[in-house]
Amino acid sequence: MAIARAAKTQRRTRIQEEKQEVILEAALEVFSSRGFLGATIDQIAEVAGMSKPNLLYYFRTKEAMHRALMDRLLTNWLEPLRAFDAVGDPAEEIRGYLRRKLEMARDFPRESRLFANEILQGAPNIEDVLKGPLKTLVDEKAEVIRSWIAAGKLRDCDPRHLIFSIWATTQHYADFDVQVRAVLGSGSPCDNRFEEAAVFLEELFLGSLVPKTP
Predict the structure, then answer these.
(1) In this predicted model, what pLDDT tens digit does every residue of 162-191 receive, in sequence order?
(2) Of 74, 88, 70, 83, which is closest to residue 135 (Cα–Cα)?
(3) What pTM was computed for the model?
(4) Cys-Cys crosslink for 101: which of 5, 48, 65, 170, Cβ 3.0 to 4.6 Å?
(5) Any idea where the domains of the chain sit in the sequence?
């Protein structure tokens, strides 16, 4: 009997996790297109294909769903920056960071728009993260870049503005993908836009930052 109860409990937990994932997937779709202020629980429930009371059993508020998505997003979104290795070759580290950010823009465009919407609305739900863990991480990696500059491996630059510039240029391909594809036109190989962007951005950043070998 104890084994049967344990199996039932495990099965219920797995089902609950699956339901939560369905809800978060629906919430991501709604938040990324409508923003936090424009989204409603009714809209999320409709996309999730469940009743509002059923949804509220798993997430009691719209804020709870949004924060769960933002926590997951920030964990994944900042992983490439955390991987910035002080003992690595600066050119390879920057090239790898650019590539990973573009891959995320390609593979997770809704998450990028979710973050952009949050920032445009004044970051009411993640201001503590921006001023706390995010700032700490950027400051830490800025010191890594300064160490490369001091060693003569990179030209002098403002490390934090370098990081901002990488964010801006890579996430553009997620947040403004409709514009990018429209401007490239139907006659161009749009499927290659992320690889073309990677090649261009590598030359843009590395060409200006890495000293030329005599």
Answers:
(1) 999 999 999 999 999 999 989 988 665 667
(2) 74
(3) 0.83
(4) 170
(5) 2-65, 78-209
